[in-house]
Amino acid sequence: MTRATETTEATEVLIVGAGPAGLLLAAELRLAGVDTVVVERHPQRPGFCRGFNLNARALDLLARRGLAERLVSEGWQVPHVAFSGLPVPLTLAGAHTDHPYTLGIPQTRVEEVLEEHALELGADIRRGHELRSLEQDSASVTATVATAGTGDGDTDRAGYRIRAAYLVGCDGGRSTVRRCAGIDFPGTEATRFSLLGDVELVDPEALPFGVTTGPGGGVFVIPRPGHVRIITADRCPPADRDAPVTVDLLETAVAEALGRRVALRSPRWTTRFGNAARQAAEYVQDRVVLAGDAAHIHPPAGAIGVNVALDDAFNLGWKLAATVRGTAPARLLDSYHDERHPAGAQVLANTRAQVLLGEADDRLGPLTDLLTRVAAHPAGNRALAETVTGLDTRYETHHPGADHPWLGRLTPDLALTTSEGRIRLTGLLARGRGVLLDLAEAERSTVRASAAGWADRVDTVSAACPDHPGLRAVLLRPDGHAAWLRTVDADTIDGDGDGGDAGLQQALARWFGPAAPSEPRLGTAPGAR
After folding, report:
1. Are 15 and 177 in contact (CB under 8 A)?
2. What is the rounded CA–CA span in Å between residue 381 and residue 89?
3. Which of 27-31, 281-285, 443-447 has the lowest mean pLDDT?
């Protein structure tokens, strides 16, 4: 039991969980000046590493805040993505991305970079602080948090209460936030389990890297610095799925698969995982929000988990910040669920499909053959790669008749020329604000005047874009997705019908709220006037 709480603190947003989603979300909120506290039940970052890659979509998003370059310089690039069950690799050449590769980099390093970024921006990160309960009312959420006491028993844990305008659960698949809020988590139970162990091979030549098959199944071996990661089926999982995975158990499972013993030693991390697939019924419930694994769990096929968590946080941060600040239009926070719930459902479908294709079932042969033929075609290969990485993510813009391929999608990192010199689009988005690119000749442009009422939230930048001479203007949300766009054929793209700026103002109001009552000072991003 936790001792009676002695203090009640206050903050604007409380985040539970200091994994990738929680740390990136904290940074996004602090970019907007929102008071943010992060509580994490573990006193320090785990000594093991769950994942080892960032995909192209995650890198594109991180680049919008200047966070990708450092990671790219430290990792190794693989020009394709994994798709379990297909013999044909999925290439990222020609895909809609600024980073056509998968980046090999430990999740622990990604978390270090995100934590440094969040701390630099002023986030309050508290490790060894565990959420015990929460209560909502119409204006806030009050959480009870336990901290480590001086004794060894649970009764020696101290506690406090913290009141926040919003609470975000980024606390994993067994989310305490989700459970306390009573949010349903429908889906399918695990039917198959696997064992994972970061261990050393007593004989380094006993198992090659990659997949080795035997009479009882397969063993997947991944090289890691100073050790290997071994994954194989858990054919007889215990009733208690949390029962420890020992080196002896892992050795036995490997022997059952290969028909021979492989000696293992020096375990760094061992675990058991299944193919359960679940998704929260609501990502937003009044003043409680879910992101990352707290909102969805899925089979680990494709190693997509950390990437989807970052995508959730990037979509949520600017919307929650505007809601807290009181500048958000109606239902802006609800649009987080509207956009990310379907994206999460697609991830569940993709990973479940990969698990099925990887099963030894002759009935799946025709399906595997069909998908292999699709993947052998360049266009089909690229489409599958964009689907499994989320590069095909496209959010509804609510502009009837607008069919430009960038609308609703992450806008490429455009090379721009302003009166101050050459810049990249990602540099303009680093502040976490909306950006309106005015790419028309100054004497012909009307968008600056039309957007004047939103200058406190949107930076208008006059520039030339030599690589896309047909563009006249682009409105980008803070997450880099195009919300409105005008080309030479303004009537078709704008949806205005008369070539005016009504479509632009509708998009500004939809994503950034009503115009200010009086004309404010314009933004100060490079190229702004």
Report:
1. no
2. 8
3. 443-447
Parse the chain into domains and list their residue ranges. Answer: 8-49+107-186+278-343, 53-105+360-393, 193-274, 415-512
Chain position carrying tokens 């479908």? 349
Residues 370, 79: Cα–Cα separation, whole Å: 23
CB 141 within 8 A of CB 164: yes
Q: How far apart are CA 282 and CA 383, in angstroms?
A: 29
CATH of domain 193-274: 3.30.70.2450
Q: Give the whole-angstrom CA distance, residue 102 versus residue 107.
A: 13
> Which residue shows structure tokens 């995982």?
273
Strand, helix or coil for residue 139: coil
Tell me whether the CATH fold assigned to 193-274 matches the one assigned to 415-512: no
pLDDT tens across 244-263, in order? 999 999 999 999 999 999 99
Q: Cα separation of 274 and 495, whole Å?
A: 48
CB 292, CB 308: distance < 8 Å: yes
The residue length of the chain stands at 529
Q: Which candidate, 143, 175, 170, places its Cα nearest to that of 159?
A: 143
Quick one: pLDDT band at residue 151, thresholds 50, 70, 90? very low
Question: What beta strand segments (E) does 400-517 contain?
Answer: 415-418, 421-424, 434-438, 458-462, 471-476, 482-487
Amino acid in the structure at residue 151: G
Its pTM stands at: 0.91
Residue type, 494: D
From residue 374, alpha-carbon distances to 78, 87, 91, 364, 389 in Å are: 21, 12, 13, 16, 17
| Mean confidence (pLDDT) of the chain | 89
Q: State the architecture of 415-512 in CATH terms.
A: 3-Layer(aba) Sandwich (3.40)
CATH architecture of 8-49+107-186+278-343: 3-Layer(bba) Sandwich (3.50)
SS3 54: strand
Torsion angle (degrees, nearest 10) of CA 167, 169, 171, 174? 130
SS (H, E, C) 2-30: CCCCCCEEEEEEEEECCCHHHHHHHHHHH
Q: Each residue of 299-327: pLDDT tens digit?
A: 887 678 899 999 999 999 999 999 999 99
- Burial of residue 4 (number of CB atoms within 10 Å: 0-12, 13-18, 19+): exposed
Q: State residue 484 phi and psi, 5-degree precision.
A: -160, 150
CA dist 373 and 377 (Å) reads 7
Distance CA 371, CA 378 (A): 13
Report the pLDDT value the prediction gives residue 84, as an integer from 0 to 100.
79
In this predicted structure, what is the pLDDT of residue 86?
A: 83
Residues 6+ apart with CB under 8 A from 334: 284
Yes or no: say if 494 and 472 are a contact pair by the CB < 8 Å rule: no
Going from the C-alpha of 258 to that of each of 217, 246, 303, the distances in angstroms are: 7, 19, 25
- pLDDT in the model for residue 491: 45
- What's the confidence (pLDDT) of residue 192? 87
